[in-house]
Amino acid sequence: MICLYQQEGLDFFEIIESALRESLNLSNIVFLKHIKIPSSAFNSLRFQYEGEKIIDKIYTEIPKQCDIGVVIVDADIYAPRMNFIFGLAEPLKKIALVSTYRLKEEDGKLKERLAKEVVHEVCHLLGLGHCDNPNCVMFFSDTIYDTDRKGRDLCEKCRRNLERI
Questions:
Q1: What is the 3-state secondary structure (H, E, C) of the chain?
Q2: Whole-angstrom Cα distance, residue 75 to residue 15?
Q3: CB-side exposure of 150: number of CA atoms within 13 Å?
Q4: Domain tally for the chain?
Q5: Do 127 and 104 meet the contact criterion of CB atoms below 8 Å apart?
Q6: Is 62 within a domain?
Q7: pTM score, two decimals?
Q8: CATH number of the domain that residue 24 is part of
Q9: Residue closest to 133 by CA, chosen among 105, 158, 107
Q10: What is the pLDDT of residues 105-127, one digit of tens each?
Q11: How many Å separate Cα 138 from the centre of its chain?
């Protein structure tokens, strides 16, 4: 079962459920609850939230029946040695974190960008790494333009790799 958590005020369940069903054929997806981002995750020197600290907090709350946790926030997140990130996967904890903060612009592409990043991070949890095909959803998005260019689906090579896992 895939358990979805969203920051208070967000409602992206239908988009995420549709993206995971269509791109990865995953169907047992449930919305668990709205969350608050822990204040301990905020870095006052960077004015950003450390993604791993958000994941650590959610990890303590995930019920045993959840195989994968997906967390959606609308905060500027980062990982060590990175200026910012769109998302982060923690395979050992089976939690994916995706932020809408840098995915939204005035061009109405937020939902499609969010779908791509959620599929990307869930694929990391399933065992896939980054792909060098710029059209594959597993291509590393260094910029929003990378996210816009890539598709929502796996390339043939990544699909075969996923089937072997």
A1: CEEEEEECCCCCHHHHHHHHHHHHCCCCEEEEEEECCCHHHEECCCCEEEHHHHHHHHHCCCCCCCCEEEEEECCCEECCCCCCECEEEECCCCEEEEECCCCCCCCCCHHHHHHHHHHHHHHHHCCCCCECCCCCCCECCCCHHHHHHCCCCCCHHHHHHHHHC
A2: 19
A3: 27
A4: 1
A5: no
A6: yes
A7: 0.94
A8: 3.40.390.10
A9: 158
A10: 778 899 999 999 999 999 999 99
A11: 12
- Active site residue ranges: 121
The answer to whether position 21 is within a domain reads yes
**Listed residue (119, 116, 130) closest to 2, CA to CA:** 119
Domain hosting 38: range is 2-118
**Residue 134's pLDDT is what?**
96
Phi then psi for residue 41, to 5 deg, are -85, -15
Q: What is the pLDDT of residue 165?
A: 83
**Residue carrying the six token digits 């990307």:** 120
88 pLDDT tier (thresholds 50, 70, 90): very high
User: Is the pLDDT score of 137 beyond 90?
Assistant: yes
pLDDT digits (tens, 9 = 90+) for 20-74: 999 999 989 999 899 999 999 999 999 999 999 999 999 998 898 999 999 999 9
In a domain, 75, yes or no: yes
pLDDT at 105: 72
